[in-house]
Specification:
- The chain has 205 residues and is α/β, with parallel strands linked by helices.
- The protein has two domains: 3-39; 50-198, 3 Solenoid (UDP N-Acetylglucosamine Acyltransferase, domain 1).
- It is 23% helix and 23% strand.
- The strands form four sheets. The chain has a seven-stranded mixed β-sheet.
- Strand 17 (176-179) and strand 18 (184-188) form a beta hairpin.
- 30% of the residues are buried.
Length: 205
């Protein structure tokens, strides 16, 4: 019986004392399992070898990214299996990727260090402080500067540039440069097509 079937069976009988106790135990173990998985994927980010990190991220934690892309050291995740990365893309050190609603990163995307990408947040006007959110999509040839923050349910169009320290609260048009808090249009970017050098040894830290 799958975990989902167990959970549904418990909820169907939630009025009985034993079912409520079983549900509490199930929630406890679910929290422990979630915490352990987050801890283990965080430890993986401290391994000083891109090859080992790539193997663990893909085969243990379910991150979807090819061998010609790089996730640099000390990257942190929530639900790593929700993170999808294209070819020749580079994720900077100490980046945070919240894959709960899905993060989709295209080809030749360069994300600088200390970037924060969120897919869930809270509705501050909700009487129950409800969780809201949506996937983040980052298209090809995007460059995101250091310490930028991308909020949930955002699409960053092809070739866009997000300046360092910007907070992106709305969709970014293709081939534009945005910056500030909240991020606003600065100028247009010329059309360029390149393959990022994701093989250089200095990027394997």
């Amino acid at each position: 019986m799958t975990r989902e079937k167990i959970r549904r069976a418990i909820y169907r009988n939630a009025n009985s004392t034993w079912a409520r106790s079983l549900l509490d135990v199930y929630k406890l173990f679910a929290r422990i399992w979630f915490g352990l998985s987050i801890f283990c994927v965080m430890l993986t980010g401290h391994i000083p070898s891109h090859t080992i990190r790539h193997t663990l991220y893909c085969n243990v934690f379910g991150v979807h990214f090819p061998r010609d892309s790089i996730i640099n050291g000390r990257c942190r995740f929530l639900k790593p299996a929700g993170v999808n990365i294209g070819h020749h893309s580079i994720i900077g050190h100490d980046t945070f990727l919240d894959g709960r609603e899905g993060i989709f990163i295209g080809n030749n995307v360069n994300i600088a260090g200390y970037t924060l990408i969120y897919t869930q947040g809270h509705d501050i006007d909700s009487p129950i402080f409800a969780i809201v959110g949506g996937p983040v999509s980052i298209e090809d040839w995007v460059y995101i500067g250091v310490r930028a923050t991308i909020l949930p349910n955002i699409k960053i169009g092809e070739g866009a540039v997000v300046a360092a320290g910007a907070v992106v609260t709305r969709d970014v048009e293709p081939w534009t440069v945005v910056g500030g808090v909240p991020a606003r249009l600065i100028r247009r970017r010329p059309f360029v097509h390149y393959d990022l050098d994701s093989y250089s040894p200095q990027l394997f830290g």
